[in-house]
């Protein structure tokens, strides 16, 4: 059973890892083989961009997974939790770094909204 502190740390780490995989520019190279950004001109002349998942079969499935925050969140959480249980000495520093970054991201959102 996890303590409240362990749960909080894993929660924050999972939040940050999921955002890193699904949204952050620095990891776009992971998504690039599975996603295409398509631009479409609207009737009013403005441009709209949207994400199109590439391929079929496994490639499409991975593309869908990488475009779904909720789906990736489950796998990120499972990866971190199992890693923490099985290889604690390796995963603990990674989890703490992600948790600290997750806290920083949440604080940044609050500061931006208050500004």
UniProtKB/TrEMBL annotation:
Membrane-spanning intervals of the chain: 60-84, 90-111
Keywords: Membrane, Transmembrane, Transmembrane helix
Protein name as annotated: Sporulation protein
Organism, scientific name: [Anoxybacillus] calidus
